[in-house]
Design goal:
By secondary structure, the protein is α/β, with parallel strands linked by helices. Helix content is 35%, strand content 22%. It has ten helices and ten strands. An eight-stranded mixed β-sheet has the order 2-3-5-4-6-7-8-9, with helices on both faces. Helix 6 links the parallel strand 6 and strand 7. It starts with a helix and ends with a helix. The N terminus is likely disordered.
Length: 297
Amino acid sequence: MNNIICFCILLITNVAFCQVAKDTSYTITSEYKKQLKKYPSIEVVQPKPNPLVIEQKNSVYHSIGTRDLHLDSYIFKLRKKLPAIIMLHDGGWKSGDKSMFQPFAEAIALKGYQCFAIEYRLSDEAKYPAGIDDVLKAIEYIKNNAEKFNIDAKKIAILGRSSGGQMASLIGTKFNADIKAIVNIDGVLAFHHPESTEGKYAALWLGGTYEEVPEIWNDASALSHVAENMPPILFINSQHDRFHAGRNDMIEILNKYKIYSKVEKILDSPHTFWLFHPWFEQTIQYTINFLDEKLKS
Protein backbone atom coordinates (compact mmCIF):
# COMPACT_ATOMS: atom_id res chain seq x y z
CA MET A 1 0.00 0.00 0.00
CA ASN A 2 2.81 2.40 0.91
CA ASN A 3 4.48 1.74 -2.43
CA ILE A 4 1.26 2.55 -4.27
CA ILE A 5 0.84 5.81 -2.33
CA CYS A 6 4.43 6.82 -3.04
CA PHE A 7 3.99 6.05 -6.74
CA CYS A 8 0.81 8.18 -6.90
CA ILE A 9 2.52 11.09 -5.14
CA LEU A 10 5.47 10.86 -7.53
CA LEU A 11 3.14 10.74 -10.54
CA ILE A 12 1.16 13.78 -9.37
CA THR A 13 4.37 15.68 -8.66
CA ASN A 14 5.77 14.95 -12.10
CA VAL A 15 2.55 16.05 -13.80
CA ALA A 16 2.40 19.25 -11.75
CA PHE A 17 5.88 20.31 -12.70
CA CYS A 18 5.92 19.03 -16.27
CA GLN A 19 6.47 21.97 -18.60
CA VAL A 20 4.56 21.85 -21.86
CA ALA A 21 6.74 21.37 -24.92
CA LYS A 22 7.04 24.70 -26.69
CA ASP A 23 5.38 25.17 -30.07
CA THR A 24 8.16 26.04 -32.55
CA SER A 25 5.99 26.18 -35.68
CA TYR A 26 6.51 29.95 -36.03
CA THR A 27 10.13 31.00 -36.48
CA ILE A 28 11.96 33.53 -38.60
CA THR A 29 13.13 30.69 -40.86
CA SER A 30 9.65 29.22 -41.32
CA GLU A 31 8.18 32.65 -42.01
CA TYR A 32 10.91 33.45 -44.53
CA LYS A 33 10.21 30.23 -46.46
CA LYS A 34 6.50 31.01 -46.37
CA GLN A 35 6.82 34.57 -47.69
CA LEU A 36 9.61 33.98 -50.21
CA LYS A 37 7.23 32.68 -52.86
CA LYS A 38 5.29 35.94 -53.04
CA TYR A 39 8.19 38.25 -52.16
CA PRO A 40 11.29 36.69 -53.77
CA SER A 41 13.54 39.69 -53.07
CA ILE A 42 13.05 39.81 -49.30
CA GLU A 43 15.97 39.40 -46.91
CA VAL A 44 15.86 38.36 -43.28
CA VAL A 45 17.01 41.14 -40.95
CA GLN A 46 20.12 39.97 -39.13
CA PRO A 47 21.20 40.93 -35.59
CA LYS A 48 23.83 43.69 -35.41
CA PRO A 49 25.33 43.82 -31.92
CA ASN A 50 26.90 47.18 -31.14
CA PRO A 51 29.41 48.00 -28.37
CA LEU A 52 27.14 50.89 -27.33
CA VAL A 53 24.40 48.43 -26.39
CA ILE A 54 24.82 45.89 -23.58
CA GLU A 55 22.81 42.76 -24.35
CA GLN A 56 21.84 40.40 -21.54
CA LYS A 57 19.77 37.34 -22.39
CA ASN A 58 17.44 35.22 -20.28
CA SER A 59 17.31 37.17 -17.03
CA VAL A 60 14.67 35.71 -14.71
CA TYR A 61 11.99 38.29 -13.90
CA HIS A 62 9.43 36.02 -12.22
CA SER A 63 8.98 32.40 -11.18
CA ILE A 64 5.82 30.32 -10.93
CA GLY A 65 6.73 27.21 -8.99
CA THR A 66 9.68 25.79 -10.87
CA ARG A 67 8.79 27.71 -14.04
CA ASP A 68 11.09 30.69 -14.60
CA LEU A 69 10.06 33.52 -16.91
CA HIS A 70 12.81 35.42 -18.70
CA LEU A 71 13.52 38.67 -20.49
CA ASP A 72 16.28 39.93 -22.76
CA SER A 73 17.57 43.44 -22.10
CA TYR A 74 19.27 45.81 -24.54
CA ILE A 75 20.81 48.63 -22.54
CA PHE A 76 22.22 51.73 -24.23
CA LYS A 77 25.40 52.97 -22.57
CA LEU A 78 24.52 56.45 -21.37
CA ARG A 79 24.61 57.92 -17.86
CA LYS A 80 21.34 59.75 -18.38
CA LYS A 81 18.28 57.70 -17.46
CA LEU A 82 16.43 56.64 -20.59
CA PRO A 83 12.86 55.59 -21.45
CA ALA A 84 12.09 51.87 -21.29
CA ILE A 85 10.42 50.00 -24.16
CA ILE A 86 8.63 46.73 -23.32
CA MET A 87 8.55 44.44 -26.38
CA LEU A 88 6.06 41.58 -26.92
CA HIS A 89 6.72 39.05 -29.66
CA ASP A 90 4.42 37.71 -32.34
CA GLY A 91 3.29 34.13 -32.98
CA GLY A 92 -0.48 33.93 -32.56
CA TRP A 93 -0.30 33.60 -28.73
CA LYS A 94 0.86 30.01 -29.40
CA SER A 95 4.37 30.17 -30.83
CA GLY A 96 7.19 32.66 -31.40
CA ASP A 97 9.96 33.73 -29.05
CA LYS A 98 11.45 36.87 -27.49
CA SER A 99 14.73 36.22 -29.35
CA MET A 100 12.95 37.18 -32.59
CA PHE A 101 13.10 40.78 -31.34
CA GLN A 102 16.91 40.99 -31.30
CA PRO A 103 17.49 43.06 -34.49
CA PHE A 104 14.51 45.28 -33.69
CA ALA A 105 15.57 45.86 -30.07
CA GLU A 106 19.17 46.57 -31.09
CA ALA A 107 18.03 49.20 -33.58
CA ILE A 108 15.68 50.92 -31.11
CA ALA A 109 18.23 50.84 -28.27
CA LEU A 110 20.81 52.59 -30.43
CA LYS A 111 18.40 55.52 -30.69
CA GLY A 112 18.56 56.08 -26.93
CA TYR A 113 16.13 53.61 -25.38
CA GLN A 114 16.40 50.72 -22.95
CA CYS A 115 14.64 47.76 -24.56
CA PHE A 116 13.25 44.61 -22.96
CA ALA A 117 11.98 41.62 -24.96
CA ILE A 118 9.66 39.62 -22.72
CA GLU A 119 8.96 35.90 -22.51
CA TYR A 120 5.34 35.16 -21.59
CA ARG A 121 3.39 31.93 -21.30
CA LEU A 122 1.77 30.85 -24.55
CA SER A 123 -1.63 29.24 -25.06
CA ASP A 124 -0.41 25.63 -24.91
CA GLU A 125 0.90 26.33 -21.41
CA ALA A 126 -1.63 28.73 -19.90
CA LYS A 127 -4.79 30.51 -21.00
CA TYR A 128 -5.66 34.20 -20.92
CA PRO A 129 -5.00 36.23 -18.86
CA ALA A 130 -1.83 34.35 -17.82
CA GLY A 131 0.34 35.87 -20.55
CA ILE A 132 -0.91 39.35 -19.66
CA ASP A 133 -0.17 38.72 -16.00
CA ASP A 134 3.37 37.69 -16.97
CA VAL A 135 3.98 40.93 -18.85
CA LEU A 136 2.66 42.97 -15.92
CA LYS A 137 5.11 41.13 -13.66
CA ALA A 138 7.91 41.94 -16.12
CA ILE A 139 7.00 45.64 -16.08
CA GLU A 140 6.97 45.60 -12.29
CA TYR A 141 10.38 43.91 -12.25
CA ILE A 142 11.87 46.45 -14.64
CA LYS A 143 10.48 49.38 -12.64
CA ASN A 144 11.79 47.89 -9.41
CA ASN A 145 15.23 47.64 -11.03
CA ALA A 146 15.20 51.09 -12.61
CA GLU A 147 18.65 51.92 -11.25
CA LYS A 148 20.16 48.70 -12.54
CA PHE A 149 18.71 49.18 -16.02
CA ASN A 150 19.24 52.95 -16.00
CA ILE A 151 15.65 53.74 -16.92
CA ASP A 152 13.31 56.61 -16.23
CA ALA A 153 10.44 54.67 -14.62
CA LYS A 154 8.04 57.49 -15.52
CA LYS A 155 8.68 56.95 -19.22
CA ILE A 156 7.67 53.41 -20.17
CA ALA A 157 6.25 52.45 -23.56
CA ILE A 158 4.92 49.08 -24.66
CA LEU A 159 5.34 47.72 -28.18
CA GLY A 160 4.07 44.53 -29.73
CA ARG A 161 3.93 42.82 -33.08
CA SER A 162 0.81 40.96 -34.26
CA SER A 163 -0.46 38.97 -31.24
CA GLY A 164 2.07 40.93 -29.18
CA GLY A 165 0.51 44.12 -30.56
CA GLN A 166 -2.88 42.96 -29.35
CA MET A 167 -1.42 42.32 -25.89
CA ALA A 168 0.44 45.63 -25.79
CA SER A 169 -2.74 47.53 -26.66
CA LEU A 170 -4.76 45.65 -24.04
CA ILE A 171 -2.19 46.36 -21.32
CA GLY A 172 -2.10 50.04 -22.29
CA THR A 173 -5.89 50.33 -22.15
CA LYS A 174 -7.26 47.95 -19.53
CA PHE A 175 -4.28 47.82 -17.16
CA ASN A 176 -2.34 50.96 -18.12
CA ALA A 177 0.55 50.00 -15.74
CA ASP A 178 1.91 53.56 -16.02
CA ILE A 179 2.38 53.06 -19.75
CA LYS A 180 3.05 56.40 -21.49
CA ALA A 181 2.89 55.23 -25.13
CA ILE A 182 1.75 52.20 -27.13
CA VAL A 183 3.10 50.92 -30.45
CA ASN A 184 0.80 48.38 -32.06
CA ILE A 185 2.38 46.69 -35.09
CA ASP A 186 -0.40 44.89 -36.99
CA GLY A 187 -2.23 43.62 -33.91
CA VAL A 188 -6.00 43.28 -33.59
CA LEU A 189 -7.93 45.62 -31.29
CA ALA A 190 -11.11 43.54 -31.19
CA PHE A 191 -11.45 39.75 -31.42
CA HIS A 192 -15.14 39.65 -32.34
CA HIS A 193 -15.56 42.35 -34.97
CA PRO A 194 -16.73 42.65 -38.60
CA GLU A 195 -13.11 43.06 -39.74
CA SER A 196 -11.77 40.23 -37.59
CA THR A 197 -11.26 36.66 -38.73
CA GLU A 198 -9.79 35.42 -35.46
CA GLY A 199 -10.65 31.78 -34.86
CA LYS A 200 -8.59 28.77 -33.78
CA TYR A 201 -5.55 30.53 -32.34
CA ALA A 202 -7.61 33.10 -30.46
CA ALA A 203 -9.86 30.36 -29.08
CA LEU A 204 -6.84 28.39 -27.88
CA TRP A 205 -5.54 31.42 -25.99
CA LEU A 206 -8.89 32.65 -24.70
CA GLY A 207 -10.06 29.23 -23.52
CA GLY A 208 -12.91 28.72 -25.98
CA THR A 209 -14.70 30.11 -29.02
CA TYR A 210 -16.64 33.36 -28.98
CA GLU A 211 -19.88 31.39 -28.72
CA GLU A 212 -18.52 29.56 -25.66
CA VAL A 213 -16.85 32.45 -23.78
CA PRO A 214 -18.02 35.77 -25.32
CA GLU A 215 -17.23 37.70 -22.14
CA ILE A 216 -13.57 36.66 -22.33
CA TRP A 217 -13.28 37.56 -26.02
CA ASN A 218 -14.67 41.01 -25.20
CA ASP A 219 -12.51 41.43 -22.11
CA ALA A 220 -9.34 40.58 -24.08
CA SER A 221 -10.14 43.21 -26.72
CA ALA A 222 -8.43 46.56 -26.19
CA LEU A 223 -11.36 48.28 -27.90
CA SER A 224 -13.53 47.33 -24.91
CA HIS A 225 -11.37 49.36 -22.53
CA VAL A 226 -10.65 52.66 -24.25
CA ALA A 227 -10.92 55.47 -21.70
CA GLU A 228 -9.93 59.10 -21.33
CA ASN A 229 -6.70 58.21 -19.53
CA MET A 230 -5.38 55.99 -22.32
CA PRO A 231 -1.85 56.84 -23.54
CA PRO A 232 -1.11 57.88 -27.14
CA ILE A 233 -0.87 55.04 -29.63
CA LEU A 234 0.90 54.41 -32.93
CA PHE A 235 -0.48 51.84 -35.37
CA ILE A 236 1.94 50.44 -37.94
CA ASN A 237 -0.10 48.32 -40.31
CA SER A 238 0.16 46.16 -43.38
CA GLN A 239 -2.55 46.30 -46.03
CA HIS A 240 -4.25 43.25 -44.49
CA ASP A 241 -7.39 44.58 -42.76
CA ARG A 242 -7.88 41.56 -40.48
CA PHE A 243 -4.73 42.45 -38.51
CA HIS A 244 -6.04 45.82 -37.39
CA ALA A 245 -9.64 44.88 -36.69
CA GLY A 246 -11.20 47.52 -34.44
CA ARG A 247 -8.53 50.15 -35.11
CA ASN A 248 -10.81 52.69 -36.77
CA ASP A 249 -13.42 52.28 -34.02
CA MET A 250 -10.72 52.91 -31.43
CA ILE A 251 -9.45 55.99 -33.22
CA GLU A 252 -12.99 57.40 -33.32
CA ILE A 253 -13.24 57.07 -29.53
CA LEU A 254 -9.72 58.45 -29.03
CA ASN A 255 -10.61 61.51 -31.08
CA LYS A 256 -13.55 62.19 -28.77
CA TYR A 257 -11.16 62.12 -25.80
CA LYS A 258 -8.56 64.15 -27.72
CA ILE A 259 -5.99 61.37 -27.31
CA TYR A 260 -3.21 61.23 -29.89
CA SER A 261 -3.16 58.37 -32.39
CA LYS A 262 -1.41 57.88 -35.70
CA VAL A 263 -1.53 55.27 -38.44
CA GLU A 264 1.50 54.41 -40.56
CA LYS A 265 1.09 51.94 -43.41
CA ILE A 266 3.57 49.45 -44.82
CA LEU A 267 2.13 48.80 -48.27
CA ASP A 268 2.65 45.75 -50.49
CA SER A 269 4.12 43.69 -47.69
CA PRO A 270 3.44 40.46 -45.83
CA HIS A 271 1.86 40.65 -42.39
CA THR A 272 5.27 39.95 -40.86
CA PHE A 273 7.00 42.86 -42.62
CA TRP A 274 9.04 43.70 -39.50
CA LEU A 275 11.20 40.60 -39.96
CA PHE A 276 12.42 41.48 -43.43
CA HIS A 277 14.13 43.99 -45.64
CA PRO A 278 13.00 46.17 -47.43
CA TRP A 279 10.42 47.10 -44.72
CA PHE A 280 12.49 46.87 -41.54
CA GLU A 281 14.11 50.31 -41.63
CA GLN A 282 10.81 52.00 -42.43
CA THR A 283 9.19 50.28 -39.45
CA ILE A 284 12.04 51.33 -37.16
CA GLN A 285 11.84 54.94 -38.33
CA TYR A 286 8.08 55.16 -37.78
CA THR A 287 8.60 53.76 -34.29
CA ILE A 288 11.43 56.12 -33.38
CA ASN A 289 9.59 59.18 -34.68
CA PHE A 290 6.65 58.37 -32.42
CA LEU A 291 8.69 57.44 -29.35
CA ASP A 292 10.88 60.52 -29.62
CA GLU A 293 7.82 62.75 -29.82
CA LYS A 294 5.97 61.12 -26.91
CA LEU A 295 8.81 60.18 -24.55
CA LYS A 296 11.61 62.65 -25.25
CA SER A 297 9.90 65.91 -26.11
